[in-house]
UniProtKB/TrEMBL annotation, chain A:
PROSITE patterns linked: ABC_TRANSPORTER_1, ABC_TRANSPORTER_2
This protein's name: ABC transporter, ATP-binding protein
Organism annotation: Oceanicola granulosus (strain ATCC BAA-861 / DSM 15982 / KCTC 12143 / HTCC2516)
A molecular-function term among this protein's GO annotations: ATP binding
Alphabetical list of InterPro entries matching this protein: AAA+_ATPase (IPR003593), ABC_transporter-like_ATP-bd (IPR003439), ABC_transporter-like_CS (IPR017871), ABC_transpr_MalK-like (IPR015855), ABC_transpr_MalK/UgpC-like (IPR047641), Mo/tungstate-bd_C_term_dom (IPR008995), NA-bd_OB-fold (IPR012340), P-loop_NTPase (IPR027417)
From TrEMBL, chain B:
Keywords linked to the UniProt accession: Cell membrane, Membrane, Sugar transport, Transmembrane, Transmembrane helix, Transport
CDD domains per the UniProt record, alphabetical: TM_PBP2 (cd06261)
Major localization class: membrane
Gene Ontology cellular component terms for the protein in this record: plasma membrane
Chain ranges of the ABC transmembrane type-1 domain: 79-270
Top-rank taxon: Bacteria
Function (record text): Part of the ABC transporter complex MalEFGK involved in maltose/maltodextrin import. Probably responsible for the translocation of the substrate across the membrane.
Family: Belongs to the binding-protein-dependent transport system permease family. MalFG subfamily.
Transmembrane regions: 7-33, 83-105, 114-135, 147-170, 191-213, 249-269
Claim: Transport is one of the keywords in the record: yes
Identification of the protein by name: Maltose/maltodextrin transport system permease protein MalG
Membrane topology: Multi-pass membrane protein
């Protein structure tokens, strides 16, 4: 078992508060990703759960037990660090067995558990090597192996893939995900990469400036972002945002062109921020006029950069594009795909969206 | 194309190095050779560079009772004293320096940087200025003419630098390693002993070498504090030759060789750690 509940977690360094009351419930076995730009407090939150930082307020509850003041070693939580933090003077086997040795587990038992973990992670041939003799991906796996031999209640990952090259990152991403599906251990994973968050998480927690911006499954966040920040952060390429206003029959762009209908009625004349994803736009005979600035084919898709008024819009399409830079086109937003946000608070105006 | 200037450059550099080495080592080597000569040969003119009839008489004399001429100090005893002082104070410095260094490197406490800076400043006062105050202090607490007194004194003198070397090397060890050890179930002490210290070995060896050599060859404080013959150290023994044997230079050579031997051994076996330890923190990566 390993369910985690965070209640109003606060953390201050001197007079500076970096976590402003975080509430979060993580069910047993859930893969939760904390995501946000650097400085948003996600790593601090993770380290607080680990016990490496003391919190200034609130409660951390692991399986009905308050663990606020417990030492890291008493929490039954394992952590994989960004730079792996393998012990350089120990072999792979010794690295993985270190925690068991500390808890005075019988030698044969340690050996058996280390071998079992090495088997899962494909590390068996490397057990006698030292960390310096391993590649980045192998080191990453040893760091994971060190966590899984302990069979802890919770795994914590602190940006574990950021030191790997792009190709390896994708590979390790699926390995971690597979590992989780196999072990079903509660996992809290910190990253600044929204693609990692989207692909791995059961639940994503978007953080910004020490607050939780939105919590939800990857597709919930994608389809119903609660704010401009979340909408822009999740999804690649990012959502387009334009200044617009509510008209009698929907949302109108600054030049009066009709963009689409909002999910809930908005008082005519109200200024809003309209958002629409690149993949929810298509070329049409009528609609918002725009000039093609760039055409970027990526194979399966083509990305178009368009200019209209003051705005630059990105759209992607799977159709073959015959237009050239400089051509005038008309674009429309697919039915029901227009997101509206309050122009001042930047919170979503969709029904059911959490108020600011 | 530019191969030739490079070869020339390195040849010149090596030559200069060689000249400096010979210049420094020649007197040492000559003293070493003198220890194998007889007194007659030493008095002979013109001077022979190589011993004509190499003999170990001088060494035998230093180590035997029968050949003692009354005035010759008890050399096995001197060597024993020096070893006792150097080894014991090295152990003390290493133990305290490690814990203090760890505290400076890892813990937050008020005045930390000030104290660490103060440690270095304390090194500037060493030397002649401290001789008399130290003598008075040691007499007052009854530790003059005592090996233990000298051990404590050398430890006090050696600790700041050892602490400083160890602290700066511990700072280079990523914090995550310790955090990782703590997540793995280690206490702070366990993470220090099992993870941090093995990685700080070069610094620990450097600090130990530095202190051992300093304590082994210290003369000024030993000479004013130690009075009785059975408490004297090798450096005092060497100095005593100046008055005793103006002509019997082979004894000086033999004693000097014996005194230099441990230092040479220490450097021979420790030099690869030594440069690493001293350079800790000098270069990133």
């Amino acid at each position: 078992m390993g369910s985690v509940a965070l209640k109003d977690i606060r953390k201050s360094y001197g007079a500076v508060e970096v976590l402003h009351g975080i509430d979060l419930d993580i069910a047993d076995g859930e893969f939760t990703v904390l995501v946000g730009p650097s400085g948003c407090g996600k790593s601090t939150l993770l380290r607080s759960i680990a016990g490496l930082e003391t919190i200034s307020g609130g409660d951390i509850i692991l399986d009905d037990t308050k663990i606020n003041t417990l030492q890291p070693k008493e929490r039954d939580i394992a952590m994989v660090f960004q730079n792996y933090a393998l012990y350089p003077h120990m072999t792979v086997a010794k690295n993985m067995g270190f925690s068991l040795r500390l808890s005075k587990v019988d030698k044969d038992e340690i050996d058996r558990k280390v071998r079992a973990a090495a088997e899962i992670l494909d590390l068996t041939p490397l057990l006698d090597r030292y960390p310096r003799q391993l590649s980045g991906g192998q080191r990453q796996r040893v760091a994971m192996g060190r966590a899984i031999v302990r069979d802890p209640k919770v795994f914590l990952f602190d940006e574990p893939l950021s030191n790997l090259d792009a190709k390896l990152r994708v590979q390790m991403r699926s390995e971690i995900k597979e590992l989780h599906q196999r072990l079903k251990t509660t996992t809290i994973y910190v990253t600044h990469d929204q693609i990692e968050a989207m692909t791995m998480a059961d639940k994503i927690v978007v953080m910004r400036g020490g607050h939780v911006e939105q919590i939800g499954s990857p597709l919930e966040l994608y389809e119903n972002p609660a704010s401009v920040f979340v909408a822009g952060f999740i999804g690649s390429p990012s959502m387009n945002f334009v200044r617009a206003s509510a008209g009698a029959d929907g949302i109108e762009y600054a030049d009066g062109h009709w963009l689409g209908r909002p999910a809930a009625a908005i008082a005519p004349g109200r200024a809003v921020i309209a958002g629409f994803r690149p993949e929810d736009m298509r070329l049409a005979d009528t609609g918002l006029p725009a000039r093609v600035a760039l055409v970027e084919p990526t194979g399966a898709e083509t990305q178009l950069v368009l200019r209209t008024g003051q705005d630059s819009l990105v759209m992607t399409t799977r159709e073959r594009v015959t237009q050239k830079p400089g051509d005038l086109v008309h674009v429309v937003v697919s039915e029901g795909k227009l997101h509206c946000f309050d122009a001042d608070t930047e919170r979503s105006l969709a029904p059911g969206a959490a108020p600011a | 194309m530019n191969e030739q200037p490079r070869v020339l450059y390195w040849t010149m550099l090596s030559l200069i190095g060689l000249v400096i080495a010979v210049y420094i080592l020649f007197p040492v080597f000559w003293l070493f050779l003198a220890s194998f000569k007889t007194q007659a040969e030493l008095a002979q003119l013109p001077i022979n560079f190589w011993p004509q009839t190499p003999t170990l008489d001088a060494y035998a004399a230093l180590f035997s009772d029968t050949h003692q001429k009354g005035q010759l100090l008890d050399w096995p005893r001197l060597i024993g004293n020096s070893f006792f002082i150097a080894v014991t104070s090295t152990i003390i410095v290493l133990i305290f320096g490690t814990f203090a260094g760890y505290a400076f490197a890892r813990l937050q406490f008020p005045g930390r940087d000030l104290i660490l800076g103060g440690l270095l400043i304390s090194r500037m006062f060493q030397g002649a200025a401290l001789l008399l105050p130290t003598y008075r202090l040691m007499s007052m607490i009854g530790l003059q003419d005592s090996l233990i007194g000298l051990v404590l004194l050398y430890s006090a003198f050696g600790l700041p630098f050892a602490t400083w070397i160890i602290a700066s090397s511990l700072r280079e060890i990523p914090r995550e390693l310790e955090e990782s050890a703590m997540m793995d179930g280690a206490s702070r002490l366990q993470s220090m002993v099992l993870v941090v210290l093995p990685l700080a070995t070069p610094a620990l060896i450097t600090a130990a070498m530095w202190h051992f050599v300093g304590a082994w060859s210290e003369f000024a404080f030993a000479s004013i504090l130690l009075e009785s013959n059975e408490n004297k150290t090798v450096t005092i023994g060497l100095a005593s030759f100046v008055e005793l044997f103006t002509l019997e230079f082979q004894y000086v050579g033999a004693a000097a060789t014996i005194v230099a031997l441990p230092i040479m051994l220490v450097f021979f076996f420790g030099q690869r750690y030594f440069t690493r330890g001293l350079l800790a923190g000098a270069v990133k990566g």
